[in-house]
Design a protein that fits this description.
Residues 1-36 are annotated as: Disordered. The protein is mainly α. The chain contains 13 helices and two strands, in the order H-H-H-H-H-H-H-H-H-E-E-H-H-H-H. Helices cover 60% and strands 3% of the residues. A hairpin with a 2-residue loop joins strand 1 (216-220) and strand 2.
């Protein structure tokens, strides 16, 4: 009975069962093919981003963002997938290219990471042929004029200022927190570190009032209140001397090799005060400011280059 019953089973139900199994198999195969196609697209897209970076059509940051976005779109549809794991080989390709460029140029590999911030101006856009960056040429600068060679002392000053220009904030921090730093205001140290002319009126104000001159602003509703000592102009020889001595002490701390230069300039100005009527001391003060502005605005002069200031002297003392 059982055999007969098994042989007489409904063929319609068997057909339906086989049909369902076939449908499931076809669906599984379709999903597998779809996943395989997505993975192929992901690989091609990620490799394209690597190639764009190698040919300067993308920055490293842009390439990484593209790779992560592409990988995330595929990995998110799989039950077990790590975006970082899948993207890592492509990030390694980018790093490897950095290392190859570093070896070819003799630069540290990390330098290329810093260059991600350089301006996109002049770079090729996507789809355009890659262009090599032009090496800047400074060899012609200054050759149009016949200038006397710089003294060893001035060359040393310029070398220090050039070095400090790489991170003036850090230099300021190191100077202001040095154990033996002389008393001097923060904006004055900023001027020294940048090689600019020190504002002696500010120094005079601090000496005369014993107050800070940096402006501070407080806001009360729509009202802004600024406070800080008002800048006082130097008008007498004694005021100039007091301000100069404090500024010179700070300059000698920052540039010990300039001691002789600064002392010679101090004596030079003192002689001018001595040779000028008291009523005209204001002209000496203006002359000093003009000389120091010239020195601070170029890298060609020292304060003891007195012959280079004859035109300024004739302007303030025509007779």
């Amino acid at each position: 009975m059982s055999a007969t019953a098994g042989s007489n089973a409904n063929p319609s139900s068997q057909t339906q069962s086989l049909t369902r199994q076939g449908a499931l198999g076809t669906s599984s195969q379709t999903d597998s093919k779809r996943l395989e196609t997505s993975q192929q697209f992901m690989v091609k897209s990620c490799l394209a981003s690597v190639d764009d970076y190698r040919n300067d059509r993308l920055t490293k940051t842009e390439a990484i963002v593209n790779i992560i976005g592409t990988v995330a779109g595929v990995v998110a549809n799989t039950p077990e997938g790590s975006i970082a794991t899948v993207a890592e080989p492509y990030a390694t390709m980018l790093d490897k290219w950095d290392s190859e460029k570093a070896r070819a140029s003799g630069w540290p590999a990390g330098r290329f990471l810093l260059e991600e911030n350089w301006s996109r101006e002049g770079r090729t856009e996507r789809g355009e042929p890659a262009q090599k960056r032009i090496k800047l040429d400074f060899s012609f600068i200054g050759k149009s004029e016949q200038l006397k060679p710089l003294s060893a002392n001035l060359q040393r000053t310029n070398e220090i200022l050039s070095n400090w220009s790489q991170d003036q904030k850090e230099v300021l921090r190191q100077v202001m927190y040095h154990s033996f730093v002389p008393e001097f205001h923060e904006s004055g140290w900023v001027e020294i570190i940048a090689g600019r002319c020190i504002d002696l009126d500010v120094v005079h104000t601090i000496v005369a009032t014993c107050q800070a001159v940096e402006k501070h602003t407080e806001t009360l509703g729509k009202l802004e209140i600024s406070y800080g000592a008002e800048i006082m102009k130097i008008t007498t020889e004694s005021e100039w001397i007091a301000a100069w001595l404090r500024a010179a002490r700070a300059l000698k701390f920052a540039f010990p090799h300039r001691r002789a230069e600064l002392d010679a300039y101090f004596e030079y100005i003192l002689r001018m005060f001595a040779q000028t009527k008291k009523a005209a001391h204001g002209q000496v003060i203006l002359f000093d400011k003009a000389v120091r502005n010239r020195v601070g605005s170029s890298r060609r002069y020292e304060l003891c280059d007195f012959d280079a200031f004859q035109d300024i002297r004739r302007k303030f003392f025509p007779s």
